[in-house]
Amino acid sequence: MTVIAVVNRKGGSGKSTLATHIAAYLASLGEDVMLGDVDRLQSSRLWLSLRGAEQAKIHGWSIDEDKFARPPAGVRQVVLDTPGGFHGFSLMKVSMHADAIVIPLTPGVFDRMAAAESIKELRSFPRVATGKCRLVCVGMRVDGRTGQATELAAWAQSQDIPLLGCIRMAQAYARCMERGLSLFDFPSTKVEQYLTDWEVLKNWLDEVLSAAPAAPGSHLTQSERLGQGSSKVGMSYPVVRNSLA
Ligand SMILES: Nc1ncnc2c1ncn2[C@@H]1O[C@H](COP(=O)(O)OP(=O)(O)OP(=O)(O)O)[C@@H](O)[C@H]1O
Ligand SMILES: [Mg+2]
Asked: Given a cut of 50, is residue 11 above it in pLDDT?
């Protein structure tokens, strides 16, 4: 079983959008996926309820924030959405079961400060500190016409955390959320302009799924290495022009 949690104490940073897309990507690979929602608002659960039967199947798992326990046996892949303000003992319990934690990172100084707090707290947990639970971040709602991607890449480098790409700001994501869909439910030719933003994250997910559980002090995956040389990753973003009105 692989457990991937999406965490950032900043509300509205894109956790549910990222969690649902990760779950849908894994489902599109034919994986048996469970999307767990620790959030009292249950955004991911609502998204699942809107999802048509013709879409790749994702199982739901509603979890009480204070009573998070080991995911049900027999499930192969688990993706966990968490609420804004999630920290402390509840977050530590999630980290005890997670193989990887993805932090969505929105541009803006207060957003970066909140993300830094989350990263600091997560690194104080043994499973993260020993490298058994991987920690990466992904830029969200990035305007490709600005220097936001470069700023996020520099910030990630200063935090010593791999940045696995920047997801551009696009109405397509809000529309997907409203319909229980993700980009990965469309023919790739229809959404290819957006899919380029997901390349590094998708490669990383493939690596995480195929990797044996990370050993203490284990090496970075290829995608994490690429993401850690943030100047290399950052280079590709400013040239991505947001073609959406
Ligand atoms: N790449 C994007 N482009 C445009 N809008 C986006 C993008 N990603 C997310 N959004 C929108 O931003 C808002 C917040 O996203 P989301 O609900 O995923 O955040 P969240 O971190 O789960 O919020 P909360 O902390 O309230 O649970 C939503 O309206 C969503 O549709
Ligand atoms: Mg949410």
From this structure: yes
Q: Which two tokens stand for residue 7?
A: 């965490």
C-alpha closest to that of 102 among 217, 9, 10, 19: 19
Q: Which CATH number fits domain 2-226: 3.20.20.140, 3.40.50.300, 3.60.130.10, 3.40.630.10?
A: 3.40.50.300
pLDDT at 56 over 80: yes
Q: Map tokens 């499930």 to a residue.
A: 75
pTM listed for this prediction: 0.90
CA 168 to each of CA 145, 146, 198: distance values in angstroms, whole numbers, following the listed order: 10, 11, 10
Residue 240: other Cβ atoms inside 10 A: 18
CA of 142 to the centre of ligand 2 (A): 18
Ligand 1 site residues, Cβ closer than 6 angstroms: 11-17, 39, 43, 83-84, 140-141, 167, 169-170, 173-174, 177
Residue 218 DSSP symbol: P
One-letter amino acid identity for 96? Answer: M
| CB 193, CB 166: distance < 8 Å | no
Distance CA 61, CA 214 (A): 25
